[in-house]
Amino acid sequence: MNVGIVGLGYVGLPLAVAFCEAGHDVVGVEVDPRKVGALKAGESYIEDVPAGTLAGISERFFPTLRVAELSRCDAVVIAVPTPLTRNREPDLSPLVAATSSIAGVLQRDQLIVLESTTYPGTTRERLVPLLEESGLAAGSEFNLAFSPERIDPGRTDYTMRNTPKVVGGLTDACRERAVALYSEVCDHVVPVSTPEVAELTKLLENVFRSVNIALVNELAMLCDRMDIDVWEVVNAASSKPYGFMRFEPGPGMGGHCLPVDPFYLSWRAREFGSSTDFIELAGEVNQAMPRFCAEKVSRALNEHSKAVRGSRIAILGVSYKAGVGDLRESPALKIIQLLGEAGGEIVYHDDHVPELAEFGLASLPLDEALEGCDVAVVVTAHPDLDLDRVLERAPLVVDFRGVTPGSGVPNLVRL
Ligand SMILES: NC(=O)c1ccc[n+]([C@@H]2O[C@H](COP(=O)([O-])OP(=O)(O)OC[C@H]3O[C@@H](n4cnc5c(N)ncnc54)[C@H](O)[C@@H]3O)[C@@H](O)[C@H]2O)c1
Fold this sequence. Notes:
Number of strands: 15
Bound molecules: nicotinamide-adenine-dinucleotide
Oligomer: single chain
Low-confidence stretches: none
Largest sheet: 8 strands, mixed
Mean pLDDT: 96
Helix content: 25-40%
Radius of gyration: 23 Å
Number of helices: 13
Strand order of the largest sheet: 3-2-1-4-5-6-7-8
Distance between the termini: 51 Å
């Protein structure tokens, strides 16, 4: 097959690799010329896709800025961003732009699949009219489906191959073609009756995480007041073999998905006169965490007779989660901003993030970051962080990830 992928980011690039490795040719259309240039030079900007992998598919992978190249594809997958506007409403402009450009080159019998996370109804109500501007009819002259992406960047136990893929088509034939497409790269494809079911499935998965993370975060704030170790509580509850699922508290939610996607559903719900109280409340609790954490650092310093103003604060880990360099919506940025505004002298260490241009900061080696610091704050615990060294060298450690030993360690404060 010839497969087209529109948008070569965290979702699109690994997908392109998967189809190439399954023996297909892939046309990757991207609007960012730097990304196309890098890929053509065999350089990767996604940590999960090493340069060696790109070298292995160079005969089959054709990154390009030219959407016209899609005309030779059997199937085209759309994986462009679906962010929020400043008013926290769905911003479909990248999706509309990508779909309109595809409509200009759409061929009879092509299969188009949307993978970008979005509210139920997007594929039918927004993509169909745009694609039909080609003069071709959806469902009969070209096929259309929605299939949500479940990639978890940095994860190695669940990959595209062994993570089931949900697919909903506009018609039965659309669904069957999409099932056949994904069966090339996934062992288990889960067909559902409509694109709307597939769209809402993705949002349920993300809302489920957001709500449960908010629940343990709320508990963490309560435990702080009650002087109970929330990690010990979570560990103990996790010993229950049924009816409980472990979620961890932390400094707040980051990434492109959890802080954003639930609002796609609450926005859509308003159109139907429904409220989504759980979703809104979870968003509020999770968004409050960075401020709570900044205050906890301030209180920890106070216990040591120090003020934030003038203290050297070493932030350890600034990406939104361990093992990746993705900064999108990272709570570390808010914590740095708040502590900086309060007069703290901020330094940071993160091997995955060489610089934070917006703060004029560059990552320091661990020892340099700890040198002379008043407090070291574990915001994101990358797997290679040398915690023994941190505990040994910093006069005070605040741990928001529960990775330090629990009780009995002097100068340690945990979420
Ligand atoms: N990152 C994740 O872990 C993840 C997981 C599941 C689902 N998703 C969803 O997948 C979608 C893509 O997310 P991502 O993380 O890959 O985003 P990304 O920003 O990493 O990649 C999207 C790419 O699309 C490109 N692009 C934008 N408009 C374009 C256009 N008109 N034509 C061609 N390319 C265009 C951008 O330049 C960018 O390189 C989003 O809807 C997201 O919610 C992401």
